[in-house]
């Protein structure tokens, strides 16, 4: 009430946020802090010129959201909160250090479908792409933005098809730049999978995107989620084009199928990886020439092993 009575007084908002932050360590205060997110974001929107207030507000929201995720509480932040966050993003789009924190916050917010939809409605996608282009070197910003992109792209809404299509070059650039960084590569592979599912690729994109995904698998073989999402992305590409299937067979190192076999053996206890591989194989055998090549590489042996290992799946 104290903050709401004096929106225009920056010192009141700063003191209010600082006082709320003092309750973060008190577990019993958590339900009350949850109800303060709108007040905090509105204070940030009203005083966007104050970087100190932005940082303190963002830090507090991160604390509240972290606790919410730990306790399995999904915070469906409404459109006004999404609008406030976008306003902050635009006002401080050059400040790399603050953006890094802000993009982490957006990633946590987008974990809720409702909040992700609200971010999409206020038009955040072009801003995310702009941030990625400007800060391609920043691993934290890249992983957070790709995770948000994934959350927005998997939504059922088709209103952003044209905007999402422009996300492919920059998402590919992120993966190319951070191939060796498992966290970023995982987020980028997920984003590429969502873009492929939404049909955001053209004929000239299938081969280079498939090759890039194979590289990501090759460089990060131990990351089960990356392998699973990479295979699902490849399956989406193969479903759309035989070119992608041939890109796997004729991979630059000539070991596309061997790579997939290796990944299966590395993640024997991961049903998600086996399922994604089976989905990819199922798409590949739709093309006669591809199937003949897979036969010559004894893929049925691998499929028999998978069948034996997961008889009830």
TrEMBL record:
It is an enzyme of class 2 (transferase). Its EC number is 2.7.11.1. Keywords: ATP-binding, Kinase, Nucleotide-binding, Serine/threonine-protein kinase, Transferase. The keyword Phosphoprotein does not apply. GO terms for molecular function: ATP binding; protein serine/threonine kinase activity. It catalyses: L-seryl-[protein] + ATP = O-phospho-L-seryl-[protein] + ADP + H(+); L-threonyl-[protein] + ATP = O-phospho-L-threonyl-[protein] + ADP + H(+). InterPro entries: ARM-like, ARM-type_fold. It comes from the Eukaryota. PANTHER family: SERINE/THREONINE PROTEIN KINASE (PTHR24363), SERINE_THREONINE KINASE LIKE DOMAIN CONTAINING 1 (PTHR24363:SF0). This is Serine/threonine kinase-like domain-containing protein STKLD1. It comes from Leptocoma aspasia.
